[in-house]
Amino acid sequence: MLFNLENVQKNYGSFRALDGISFKLEEGSVGLLGPNGAGKSTLIKTLLGLLDIDGGSASVLGFRLPSEAAKVRHVTGYMPENDSFLPYMTAVDYITYGGRLVGMPKADAFRRAHEILYYVGLGEARYRELKGFSTGMKQRVKLAQALVHGPKLLFLDEPTNGLDPKGRLEILELIEDVKARGVSVVLSTHLLSDVEKVCESVVMLNGGKLIHQGSVADLTKSGDRIFEVEPKSNIEKLIEVLKKNKFNVSQSGLKAKITVDEKDDGQSILKCIVENDIQIRHFVPGELTLEAAFLELLDEAST
Known about the structure:
Helix content is about 35%, strand content about 30%. The protein is of the alpha/beta class. Helix 3 packs parallel to helix 5. About 35% of the residues are buried. The mean pLDDT is about 90.
């Protein structure tokens, strides 16, 4: 069992950051999703044993929290969103230091640092100081420090943040390779396409509450149909009119995405648009993506 959480609560003073979170997950890859302030970072820190819970119970890889937090950290790796290294250190010194922090003998940590830096594509830069690294190199070195001790579980917080398309693809390919080597992955990101590419299941939070937990395949598979509508102007008016007429609608940029019954060919939507004298640029069938499902769940949770 990867995670077993029962009614987990975490408070910051009078503010409840985690409000009765309960779920079970087997080993594999999971996307952790939610808007800003949803509780994602608090949940990660809790699962790492860095924060004590204020209610409920939790275990990671069979280790109970908080009593076995040290054991949890010994078998997990954490790639933080923000840079967390000393700029004057070389890459190999930084990774070696990370290995030493989890109890590796100095010689083993040094040898492993060389191996893992080559693995993430930084072998030629291993003796360079970190202050001279590009954004892509910094993301790779953060991934390397999370992997140095051979963890069974890897927490990744926005691993493709700030990367160009090529760099993003390369990091995702590295994550796929890590998974293929038997390491479970928790991916926290605002890029839902990354989750669709590398994750098998998702955990969605909003306002400290669990709003969905399940497989990506089930979430993006539905008997419903989706239509995308782009008005010539005033997307807010279109959204307001559709919601007033009881349509299940979400906004994506300048487009409205409307979910209807699978038997609906979209004529009901067009009729509503014409009756309210709204001009549109296009009206096309869409796909039920993870993003669309996520926005729909957020909308349901807020009503």
